[in-house]
Prior knowledge:
The chain is mostly helical. It has a domain at 1-49. Helices cover 69% and strands 5% of the residues. It contains two helices and three strands. The chain has helices spanning 54-155, 157-176, and strands at 22-24, 30-32, 41-43. A three-stranded antiparallel β-sheet has the order 1-2-3, with no helix packed on it. Strand 1 and strand 2 form a beta hairpin. The longest helix is centred in the middle third of the chain and has 102 residues, at 54-155. The protein starts with 21 loop residues before the first strand and ends with a helix.
Amino acid sequence: xxxxxxxxxxxxxxxxxxxxxxxxxxxxxxxxxxxxxTCPIPLPENFVMNKPADHVANAATAAANTVTAAERIDAxxxxxxxxxxxxxxRTKDAVDRAADKVESSLHSATDKAAYGATLAAEKxxxxxxxxxEAYGEAVDTANDWLDTARDYVREKPVQSIALAIxxxxxxxxxxxx
Length: 177
């Protein structure tokens, strides 16, 4: 059995050899194995056990590092703030460009729709005028035929009556069949 050694006397050095309770495991982590403990305690590779008098020096070093850490945090926060501002500016520019493109497309579509509506209204007006002309011509033709029939009846009344009787008899024969 090995002799008990005070913990503050040991320091970890990866290059150190010899037999001491610090051992390497397969993943290059160092473990401290004490005779009274049966399970290993994982230690970082650069672990150093200091004497109690060095705790005051460690506290002063830690306080000095805290100021440095605060400065690093401030610098990191400033970089994040700057990166966020740049990202927001780029995003705003991209959105503005997209909005301009959409607005331009909408104006173009509105202009095309207005042109199409105007063209359709003009075509409808032309069709209306042609329809009125055709109706007027049909009415004139019907009036001409009616006038011709009246004139014929006035000039030849007996023949008109005979023609009407013959047309009635023929229509009756066709409808009875």
